[in-house]
Amino acid sequence: MINFTSTIHSHSPATKAMLSIGGDTGSPILPSMTSCQDNRVAFIKSTIDVARNYGFDGLDLDWEFPIEPENMLNLALLFKEWRLAINTESLTSSKPPLILSAAVYFSPNSLLSGAFYPGEALSNYADFLSPMCYNYQGSWDTSATGAPALLYDKSSNISTSYGISAWKQNGVHPTKLVMGIPLYGNTWELKDPNDHRIGAPAVGVGPGTQGEISYDEIVTFNAENNATIVYNNETVSTYSYAGTNWIGYDDTNSITAKIKYAKAQGLGGYFFWALGFDSNWTLSRTASMAWDDGI
To answer: Which SMART domains match (predicted)?
Structure first.
């Protein structure tokens, strides 16, 4: 980790390195840790120690996902205590306070359980939140194709625009929201190769690993299979199809439109999951240029 942070810090302009903790969907570890003050204190101390020992500039919690109301209350307590400990350590060490952030569900209202994130606490104690605005559709529903990270959806609340608006309505200032964008797609096997629209009947997953495929692999698949690529302006999403294979993903068109949306909403920024899935930095560069141009 020392090599990682040293490399990051050697860049010009200066770049910060964050240590992200968690990510394990369905694991009992985070609910157990947050439910007890002694556990929270031990966790907080260890995270600050590791961050300082290895040269990290901040800490990020990736809990996928707190779904019970009790989990949400404990999450608020954790961030309150974490912020206090970070500020105290900063005064003691005379170092800048560590950045504190959280990767969160695309919406403050968990559609998995109906529980609400503690928006006020997260806004007060975190420097920024990173809504994971993807995985709206995937291998868990193979009955029909779907746009897995669409910006707009007139038929439901499962969309990036709904999630960002809901976070703002839940008390989080837009500058504290960093919008997530996927660098991978979700795939389906079409029931009828002649019906290839969004929402077309499907019978299973398509290419990739269990219905997921990186953007780099999508570019290769499209080229090798002479796939037809369709950009859907209404939803701001892209899909390609070849035979019975169907892939929903983001390309340069949808990325540019999403960055334009993020700028218009006054968001603090955007993030990709994950940079290593890009194809020759195509989407990363597209997003950077769109953000810098202020379009």
So the answer is: Glyco_18
